[in-house]
Amino acid sequence: MIPSMKQALLRGAVAMSAFVLIGCATSPNGAETEINALNGTIPVSALGRIADHPAESFADLLPDPLLADYLATALTGNNSVEQARIAVEAADLRLTQSRARRGPFIGLSGSTGASTGLDDFDLNDSARLGASLSFDPDIFGEIRATVHGSQAQLFLRQAELARLQRAILARTAQAYVQAIETDLQLALAQENFEFLGETLRVSRARFEAGDIARSDYALSEAEYENSRASLFAQQLGARESRRTLADLVGRYDVETLPVATTLPPIAAQHATIRATADRAVLARYDIEAQRLAVVSAAANLDATKASTLPGISLSGSAGGGLSLSDLFDIDTYVTSLSAAISDTVFDNGLDTARIAESRTRLDAALATYSEALRDAYRDVISSLDRLEVFQTRLIALDAASRAAGQALELEQVRFDLGEAILLDVLTVQRRVNTIQSSRIREESAIRTALIDAYLAAGPAR
Known about the structure:
Residues 1-31 form the signal peptide. Pfam families: OEP (PF02321). GO terms for molecular function: efflux transmembrane transporter activity. The protein has 13 helices and four strands. The chain is an alpha+beta fold. Helix 2 (30-41) packs antiparallel against helix 11 (285-307) and helix 8 packs antiparallel against helix 13 (422-456).
């Protein structure tokens, strides 16, 4: 029995090898080619760069020690990031499941029992031990296409995670800039309030002395109360800005949350964004995700097509044993090897509809990718245009601020000498405050626009 069993196993192995060779020779590789080409242009290590160094880019863009600390902790405990990480892990597990279908499946079984008649109660024991082997040679490439689709989904989830991380870092940097801006606006409002308080004191004294009319004194009082209301509004705005920053960095000490007293300086790296705008678009993580969605849809179409072709499987089994005493007697074992092919003769158009649906999803993914490219390029160019406009306006505001400051000094001197009325001083003061407030907003807007442009352009490769 042993030689005959060895011959049967040998013949089965030869048949199995033949099926595998046929499968390898005829497997489609369209989806795999797209995925390999995409992997060659988007290294896996680059997808994890933000996760390894989450704060490096934006901290270098606006050098500020406090900002660097906030960026370093912004991703810790963030629920959206945690959900995206879980999605990556789930995609990795699905890829593992898809790859598991490539290998053989081995099963073991065993049973034992006893029986007896009711007349003599003579026990007859029985036992059986068996093993089975099954293997899908994947001749038409359904498993291969499924694996490629799972790979694309994994890379897609990684790209989405990296995109989300960069977006959170950008929002954190902008919230930090906004907190500093509101603090500066609050300081300006406080300074204006104190100035108008002093002006009101002088106006009251001059009104009581008969040097100015009641209307001038009333105007001074109105300006003072208006500045008080503005001060309260600025205080609220400063608290709201700090709450936003505290939420992003996961802190609760809103009142004591430290920020710099001046807006952070701008590094010189942003000057290279315009020169690489076209390449920067392709480097964006959302564009990578859309490209991978196309690859995944193509792999799904290949898998759907392959699933409509005949199914071929290989299986083998070995088992034996009649009683407990025969359980380990090789002469009682029987082996079998078989190959099976099956196909659906009529499905009422189901397979055709499934293929058409998969093709439609691929067309939709291509259309979405094309639209995403246009939107991303427009995003980059618009962000850079806004940045240039803000920088140009800041130059004009600097000149206006200097001129308004000189005019206020001269008008204050004239008022003290009695050569100008209070209305003239207040008019110049309002202009100065408006220009200074606009300059602070413009400085903040430049940094916000720079962050937007840096985010729109994608990470440096």
